[in-house]
TrEMBL record:
The lineage of its organism: Eukaryota, Metazoa, Chordata, Craniata, Vertebrata. It is a single-pass membrane protein. Residues 51-178 form the LRAT domain. Keywords: Acyltransferase, Cytoplasm, Endoplasmic reticulum, Endosome, Lipid metabolism, Membrane, Sensory transduction, Signal, Transferase, Transmembrane, Transmembrane helix, Vision. The active site is at C162 (acyl-thioester intermediate). One of its GO terms (cellular component) is endoplasmic reticulum membrane. The gene is Lrat. It comes from Sakesphorus luctuosus. Pathway: Cofactor metabolism; retinol metabolism. It catalyses: 1,2-dioctanoyl-sn-glycero-3-phosphocholine + all-trans-retinol--[retinol-binding protein] = 2-octanoyl-sn-glycero-3-phosphocholine + all-trans-retinyl octanoate + apo--[retinol-binding protein]; 1,2-dihexadecanoyl-sn-glycero-3-phosphocholine + all-trans-retinol = all-trans-retinyl hexadecanoate + 2-hexadecanoyl-sn-glycero-3-phosphocholine; all-trans-retinol--[retinol-binding protein] + a 1,2-diacyl-sn-glycero-3-phosphocholine = apo--[retinol-binding protein] + an all-trans-retinyl ester + a 2-acyl-sn-glycero-3-phosphocholine; 1,2-diheptanoyl-sn-glycero-3-phosphocholine + all-trans-retinol--[retinol-binding protein] = all-trans-retinyl heptanoate + 2-heptanoyl-sn-glycero-3-phosphocholine + apo--[retinol-binding protein]. This is Lecithin retinol acyltransferase. Its EC number is 2.3.1.135.
């Protein structure tokens, strides 16, 4: 039987990562908020090969600037698995397409305008360079890598997401720091859970083997349990 912990962690991450990309809905209309008009962002400070970040509520969306108001970025999308019509695929990804893409683990590296890529969010430029300063590739090399990958691709929130795409393009190795951070958090939760279970087992053993007062032992068992549940 497979260990359910990695599967549960992957499922939780998938649900959380949806919040990165799902666009806000118009209040009471059921329609999607339109992207900002062209020219909303000042692209004069962007250079070809720049790594662009758009912070969201829980996570960050990434892309590689190609010049002329174009950004290559990896997006979950079911449509490339259903049709080869480039005109349909190139339309802005709807929430339905995105969610089905996550479920089916399909995506595409697509080229959109800066406005469509950022969707109203603030943009950070080359913010990750400070972490990979010895690995930064040339700007033209980064842009060419991104352009070569444009098209349909497999998708995994843990192993092949938008951050893996841009770090491969700009730093030569696909990594995802936000995925690593999430996995560390899950490990901490699992360790805490094991500590609580160990406390419960020790308390029960003390009743059987040491003859301690049940009221004292039960307090030892359940106080950490309730503290863990409250946290």
């Amino acid at each position: 039987m497979k260990n359910p912990v990695p599967q549960a962690a992957s499922l939780l991450l998938e649900k959380l990562m949806l919040l990165v990309h799902v666009r806000p809905l118009l209040a009471g209309s059921g329609g999607e908020t339109p992207p900002p008009a062209p020219g909303y962002y000042d692209t004069s400070c962007f250079k070809r090969g720049d790594l662009l970040e758009v912070p969201r509520t829980l996570f960050i969306h990434f892309g590689i600037y190609l010049g002329e108001n174009r950004v290559a970025h990896l997006m979950p999308d079911i449509l490339p698995a259903l049709t080869g019509d480039r005109r349909q695929i190139q339309q802005v990804v709807t929430n339905k397409r995105l969610i089905l893409g996550v479920i089916a683990r399909t995506a595409s590296v697509r080229v959109d305008t800066v406005e469509d890529f950022a969707y109203g969010g603030s943009i950070l430029v080359n913010h990750m360079d400070r972490l990979f300063e010895d690995q930064v590739l040339g700007s033209e090399e980064a842009a060419r890598r991104a352009e070569k990958l444009v098209g349909a691709t497999a998708y995994s929130l843990l192993w092949n997401n938008c951050e893996h795409f841009v770090t491969y393009c700009r730093y030569g190795a696909p990594v995802s720091l936000q995925t690593d951070k999430f996995c560390e958090t899950v490990k901490m939760i699992i360790r805490d859970q094991r500590s609580v279970l160990a406390s419960v087992l020790v308390g029960l053993a003390s009743i059987v083997c040491l003859g301690l007062a049940p009221s004292t032992t039960l307090a030892t068992i359940f106080i950490p349990f309730f503290l863990w549940m409250a946290g």
